[in-house]
Structure formats: C-alpha cells, structure tokens
Specification:
By secondary structure, the chain is mainly alpha-helical. It has 6 helices and 2 strands, in the order H-H-E-E-H-H-H-H. It has helices at about 1-10, 15-30, 55-65, 70-75, 80-95, 95-105; strands at about 35-40, 45-50.
C-alpha cells in the first residue's frame, strides 16, 4: 500500500501525507454520502454519482435545466430520484467544490 501511495503522490506532485489525508477525507465524505464516488479529473478529484458517468456538478446543472424538478432530472438520467437528491445534498454540503467545477465547465463552452 505504501508503494502505491508513494507512486500516486509522485504522479500528482504531492507529498504522500497530503495524498493520504485527501483519501481519508474522501472516505469520510463517502460515509456521509454513500452514492458518491470520486475520480481523478479537473479540477482535481471529482465527485460522481456511483455507478454512473454523471459528475455531481453536472447533476446540479441538469436539475437547474429542469427548473428544479428532481423527478424529471432523474427520469432523464434513468436513475432513482433518491440518488439525484443525494447528489444535490452533496452539492449543498460542498458548494465551493461544485462551484469550481461549474465555472471550469462554463469556461470551456465555445
């Protein structure tokens, strides 16, 4: 495990202790939001709805497009509304993370 952590830290250009702390923080978040996973992306680690290709920031944007109608967004995603609601609760709990991801997505729009 230490070799894997050291390799991951080297790849990310971070100290192994920082990478370990980040993984612990993600574990705590997952214990509060079990339908949320994390993947490497931009900016940094990105929260996704487990078992999907839907990042939380995109779910927030989709619900906004549906004027806040969670059931309609869930139908569009072909996922239960309860999972969409968990993603929205995650976004409410970590608004700076979601705001940064939304800003990055907006900056990439042509």
């Amino acid at each position: 495990v230490k070799m894997d952590l050291d390799a991951d830290a080297k790849l990310k250009g971070l100290a192994p202790g920082t990478v370990a702390a980040n993984y612990i923080a993600e574990g705590v978040r997952k214990s509060k939001f079990p339908a949320i996973d994390f993947r490497d992306g931009e900016p940094g680690r990105v929260a996704y709805l487990t078992g999907t290709r839907w990042p939380v920031w995109l779910i927030v944007d989709l619900v906004k497009d549906y004027s806040g109608n969670v059931d309609a967004a869930a139908k569009h995603m072909k996922r239960p509304a309860a999972l969409v609601k968990m993603a929205l609760r995650y976004a409410e709990t970590f608004p700076d993370e979601i705001k940064a991801a939304l800003q990055l997505a907006d900056s990439r729009q042509p």
